Amino acid sequence: MTGLMAYVGARLEVVDPLGIIHVSELVKDFRRPKRIKGALGGLRTLVTRESVIKRAVDGIDFTVDEGEFLGYLGPNGAGKSTTIKMMTGILQPTSGKIEVAGIVPWRERQRNALNIGVVFGQKSQLWWDLPLRESLQIIGKLYAIDPARHRANVDWFVELLDLDPFFDTPVRQLSLGQRVRGDLAAAMLPEPRILFLDEPTIGLDVVAKERIRGFLSALNREAGTTVVLTTHDLDDVERLCRRIILIDGGKVTYDGDVESLKSRFVQQRRLVVKLAAGVEWRGVGIPGVAESIGDEAVELAFDPAEIQVSELITAVLADHQLTDVAIVEPELENVVHRIYASAGMA
Amino acid sequence: MSGSALTVRQRLAAYAGLAKIQISAQTIYRSNYLVSLLGLLFKVYLLKEVWVAAYPHSRATMGHGQQISLSAQIAYSTLASVQYFVFNPWTLSGIPERVRNGQVAVDLARPVRYTAQMTFGQAGVMIAGLPFVIVALPFAILVGGAEAPASAGAGLGYAVSLVPAFLITLLTGSIVGITAFWTLETDGTSIIYRMVAQFFAGALVPLWFMPGWLETLASWLPFQATTYTPIAIYMGKSGSVVSTIGLQCVWVVVLWLILRLLAVRALRRVALQGG
């Protein structure tokens, strides 16, 4: 067995049918010294024992099944990173339960670390001054990976992520895209059951993003790795995630698939028509259709539950000659923007 | 794969790997080392000049009831400068930088102990300086001076006592480093630490020339065990070699416990309050 086959073979030893991540009534409070304003405020802040409690995570519940690809989304400050840090064992919950692959992360941080891989888009786990090759070597030691398996995995990642052209270049000289590929290889080398990704594609160009998405998709599909992704890039989500959890103000506001999210939050579809030269817009005369007339095209917003598309198109064609007609489905980008905005967060 | 934690043997291999990777990382700072070696030779030379000027014509004086010859004093200051140079690279500890830039999150997601990762890494940084010193030593002796060890046993005792001396330096530096979890910024503390540590280590002036109260103070601090103690053993001025090394080892244990205690508190602070 070589490459992918060996990796998959090693990975699929255990599948927990009851779910691999369990989070229930999870709460995290941060205590910060109270800032005092006014005269000598800075000094009084320093000596005061008063503090303010900020609730970052406020009673979150969810279960993730092994093999899922979960998008964990929310505006800045919603509590995403705090939850991830609790799942990696860096933070201890104020109350509630959390279990990752049968381990309570904050109680057994080091043992939990053997089951998870973490990639922070803004931080690297690689050794800055050394070639990527040496970083991957030491990671083999840190996770006590069997040497033969280590070699096979490195070969596979070099091929799959195309690391060869820069494998012997010091990490400091790599482009951001190359570095993130190196970080992904480093995170996945120990064959973790769960991969946490915190904004992995931030700052990358389209080609680099696409390459990383391809890798993540293959990893999840072929090796069955459970992936939890936080990102602000909703193209990532549409391409990769079958399930989304949306959090805001420390609470889960949505948990389900991408399609239902769209239909739940955006009832409207839009019909875009382009008029033939010299034709003037005369309206369709159907109640419930909002018209907006532009220079090039006319946009008609409607609720598909009340008005049939065919009915609308027929009405348009009855009075106008067209060069083009298109139905615009809602984009996740707009949907999420709308949700954030309605919560007063955007 | 999921289940058991790393065995002791696997952990040691991991820590050794972390030290080794720091050794190779330091090779890119070769030219820095070479430049700072010139600084070392300059220091050795200046100290020699000062001692020659300070000593009476008889070329011998008394320090704490012992006769200290000029040549012994020059040998001391040469050896002390070289030793201090190896044990104290530019960074005392990797902790403050990694706390400041958030890399600590990466370290905490590893399956091995945080403080061990940091101290073994720092040990690698210190070991990386050794080859340069071996090259510089003959020059230092040329510029300064040297004396043979008081006896074969003293020579052996010296070599052995360098191990706890190394560990004490490593641990005190790490203790200063770990305060970054509370203060974020340790530059000021580090400067004071270096000053105090260098002085009380006897790296500038040996303890035998310190006034009684200062020597008493120095002997109650761990720093003298890093520089003064090994050289005093070398020169046969330390009393019982075994008990002197034993005392060094007590310091290693005490400092290790302090570091562990601080680390537990630091990580609890992170766990409760966030980064």
From TrEMBL, chain B:
<keyword id="KW-0472">Membrane</keyword>
<keyword id="KW-0812">Transmembrane</keyword>
<feature type="transmembrane region" description="Helical">
    <location>
        <begin position="231"/>
        <end position="259"/>
    </location>
</feature>
<feature type="transmembrane region" description="Helical">
    <location>
        <begin position="123"/>
        <end position="146"/>
    </location>
</feature>
<dbReference type="Pfam" id="PF06182">
    <property type="entry name" value="ABC2_membrane_6"/>
</dbReference>
<keyword id="KW-1133">Transmembrane helix</keyword>
<dbReference type="InterPro" id="IPR010390">
    <property type="entry name" value="ABC-2_transporter-like"/>
</dbReference>
<protein>
    <recommendedName>
        <fullName>ABC transporter permease</fullName>
    </recommendedName>
</protein>
<feature type="transmembrane region" description="Helical">
    <location>
        <begin position="158"/>
        <end position="184"/>
    </location>
</feature>
<feature type="transmembrane region" description="Helical">
    <location>
        <begin position="191"/>
        <end position="211"/>
    </location>
</feature>
